[in-house]
Amino acid sequence: MLRPRIVVYLLTDGKGLVKTLKFKPDKYLGDPLNAIRIFNELEVDELVLLDIKATSEKREPNYKLISNISKQCRMPFGYGGGVTHSEQALRLVSEGAEKVVIGDAGVSDPSLISDIAKNIGSQSTVAVINHKKDLLGRRIPCFANGLKKTGLSLVNTVDLLQENGVGELVFYDVDRDGARVGFDQKFIDEVYAASSCPITVVGGASSTDDFSEPGKKYQAIGLGAGSLFTLVGKHKAPLINYSKP
Amino acid sequence: MIGVIEYQAGGNVHAIKNALNYLSIEYIVSSEPDSLSGCRKIILPGVGAFDTAVKSLRATGFESFLNDVVRNQSADLLGICVGFQVLANESEEGTEKGLGFLNTSVKKFKSTDLPVPHMGWNAVKSNGHPLFEGVKQDVGFYFLHGYRFDFEYEGSIAAATYGEDFCCSASAGRVFGVQFHPEKSHGNGLQILKNFSEM
User: Fold this and answer.
1) Which H, E and C letters describe B130-153, residue by residue?
2) CA angle, corner A121, sides to A105 and A109, nearest 5?
3) Which candidate, A206, A208, A211, places its Cα nearest to that of A234?
4) ipTM of the predicted structure?
C-alpha cells in the first residue's frame, strides 16, 4: 500500500534558501543547490522549491537553477513561484521539474490551472492554497504571502481548482509556518474529505511524530515540512536533515 | 548503447539521462527513429495521456520503428509509465489503439475511495525476474498514474497494491515495462535501469 509522502519544502527569496516564520523571512540557509544535493543523498521522497519573492519582484523562474537542480534529483522535484502562464510551466517541465506549483495566480484565476494542466498534464499541475484562521476561527484561503483574504471559502476554492483539472492540492498553513506546533488533524480530516485528488499539508511539523497520526490514518497523503528538515535546536541552527515516521 | 526515445509525451528525459550518466551507461537520446536503429536496448519514457503518447509515436515514425524492432526481436525495449501503457492493446483512458506488444488492456483503478491518481512511493512484489534483481521491494518506487494493468495479466512480473492489487511490471519476449518511474526512485530505480542495461 502507498506510504505517506514526506515532502521537503524549501523556500528561496531568489538569492538563497530562506526559512520563514508565519510567512515572514526568518533565517537565511544558503545555497539551494548544495542543500538539494544533500537531500537527494538522504533519499527524500520528494522535494519542492518555492520562490516566495518571484511574484512581488515580478521575476521569471530561474530556469538555469531548475535545470541544475533537476540534474541532482533522483526523486520528484516541484517548483513554484511567479508562475502565471502556461509557457513558463512548459519550460519548467522541459528543464526537468516534475511538478509546477501555482500559488496566488491559480487561486485568483483557476482557468490558469486548466490551461497549464492541458499543456503539461494534470499530474504535474499543483495548486497551493495558503490559509489561516480568521477572527471567528474559520480557515480561509489568503493571498500575497498570507496577508489578504481571497474572499472565497476553502471548500469553494478546492472545488474550483479541481474542476479546472488540478492534479494535487497543497494546503500551506500561514499561522503554523515555521512555528513547530504540529499539524491540525481536524483540518487535515476536512480537506482530505473535500479533495478527490492527492493533497499535501505543510506548516507546523515539529518532529517526525507529527507525521504518524495523519500518515497512519490516510496513507495516500503528502506531509510537508521546511523548518523541521533545515533547522535544528532551540536556536534554529541550519542543518539539512531528513527522517520519516 | 541504450537508445532513449524523445517524443512529445516523453516527459522527463532529463531525469533518465541523469540516471544513466550516474550509472556510466552509454546512451543516445533522439527524436529520429533512424538515429536509434543500431541500439540493442531501447527506453520509451512517458508522462501524460495515453492518446497523446500514441499519436505522437505514430507521427514521429516511432510506432513503425518499434513494430520492426519487436517483430525482428532486434532489441530489448523498456517502457516507463505511459511508455509502458502504450505497449498494451488499448487503454480505458483513451480511444487510440496501443502498440499491442503486451496482449492486455489498461484500465482505470476500481476504487473510488482513494485519491486519484496513485501518487507516491509504494512497495512492489516481483516474481523473481532479473529486472528486479537487487531491488529493495519494501521500499518500492515512485508511482504517478491513474490507469493500470490487471493483476491477472499473464505477462506480469511484479505487482503493487493501491486499493486493489495491480500489475506494475510486465514482460513479453524482449518487451518490458514498468508502471513506476525508475528515474525518480533513487537507488531502486537505478537498479532497474542497471539490470535492464545488463540483461
Assistant:
1) HHHCCCCCCCCEEEEECEEEECCC
2) 20
3) A206
4) 0.91
**3-state DSSP assignment of residue B169:** strand
Assess whether pLDDT exceeds 80 at residue B37. Answer: yes
Residues of A whose CB is below 8 A from B22 = 74
CB distance A74–B123 less than 8 Å? Answer: no
**Residue B166, min C-alpha distance to chain A (Å):** 11
Helix axes A185-194 and A209-218, enclosed angle (nearest 10): 30
pLDDT exceeds cutoff 80 at B57 = yes
Q: At what angle do helices A63-72 and B13-22 cross, to 10 degrees?
A: 50
Q: What is the dihedral of CA B122, B146, A189, A26, to 10 degrees?
A: 70
Q: What percent of chain B has pLDDT over 90?
A: 90
Give the C-alpha separation, B147 to B124, whole Å. 17
Q: Which residues of B are catalytic?
A: 81, 181, 183
Q: Are A46 and A7 in contact (CB under 8 A)?
A: yes
What's A77's DSSP letter? E
Search chain A and give the residue with CA nearest B18.
A71
- In angstroms, the separation between the Cα of residue A1 and the nearest Cα of chain B is 5
Contact A220, A233 (CB under 8 A): no
DSSP state of A80: E
Q: Which residues contact A200 (CB under 8 A, 6 or more apart)?
A: A5, A7, A168, A169, A170, A171, A221, A222, A223, A224
DSSP B34-77: GGGTT-SEEEE---S-HHHHHHHHHHTTHHHHHHHHHHHT-SEE
Q: Using the beta-carbon criterion (under 8 Å), do B144 and A123 form an inter-chain contact?
A: yes
Interatomic CA distance for residues A51 and B22, integer angstroms:
28
Q: Which positions in chain B touch A48 (Cβ < 8 Å)?
A: none
Chain B: give the shortest CA distance to residue A147, in Å.
Answer: 31
Which stretches of chain A sit within 8 Å of chain B by CB? 1-5, 43, 45-46, 67, 70-71, 73-76, 93, 95-96, 98, 120-121, 123-124, 167-168, 195-199, 220-222
Give the pLDDT score at B169.
98
Under 8 Å between Cβ of B154 and B185 = no
The pLDDT of residue A188 is above 80: yes
User: Which helix H or strand E contains A125, and what residues bound it?
Assistant: strand A125-133
Query: Strand A231-232 and strand A237-238: pairing?
Result: antiparallel
Contact between A149 and A179 (Cβ < 8 Å): no
